[in-house]
Amino acid sequence: MNRKIGFFSVFIISFILCGSGAWAMNHEKTYDTGHNQHSGMMMGESMVILGQAEVSGIKGMAHLSDVRKQMTAMGRSETNHFMMMFSDTKTGQPIDTGTAALKVQTPAGETLAPVKLIGMDGHFGADITLKETGEYHFLVGTKLGDGQKRQFHFDYTLK
């Protein structure tokens, strides 16, 4: 059993390292967040910019990517990758230290259990499952490197 877990872990890590590099090369674009440019963000055709919000001197930009095909191939049920990028509104410098968590409210009004957003190459992200069509609400709570707590809110209608 340990050998299977070890192989599975190596497979996942290899898939992420090799697959994300190829995806980034094929879909590299630059997006202006108002204060700075983010290039090579792996923006594929299935990625949606949910918007940006400014809270207490920090700009947060949220993205949602459809990863259903890749997850299904790995036997997983997650449908989307949610990610947030933060920058200082005065300097435009990206912020990638601290903690962030996501709460999702479904179209039926159910609030799902909070999900920790993991720091990943300039953004915070996590794979989530969006099962039903309709309007979702995303609430991101943060405690970034300056120690101040902030909340960012985004909406998205899944069709």
Q: Which percent range describes the beta-strand content?
A: over 45%
Question: What would you report as the Rg, rounded to the nearest angstrom?
Answer: 16 Å
Number of helices: 2
Main β-sheet: number of strands, strand sense, barrel status?
A: 9 strands, antiparallel
The secondary structure category is alpha+beta
- Proportion of helical residues: 10-25%
Note the main attributes of this structure:
159 residues; alpha+beta; 9-stranded antiparallel sheet; two-stranded antiparallel sheet; 11 strands
Structure, described:
It is built from two helices and eleven strands; from the N terminus they run αββββαβββββββ. The protein has helices at residues 2-26, 68-73, and strands at 30-32, 37-39, 47-55, 58-66, 80-88, 94-95, 98-105, 115-120, 123-128, 134-144, 149-158. Strands 3, 4, 5, 6, 7, 8, 9, 10 and 11 form a nine-stranded antiparallel beta sheet that branches. Strand 3 (47-55) and strand 4 (58-66) form a beta hairpin. It starts with a helix and ends with a strand.
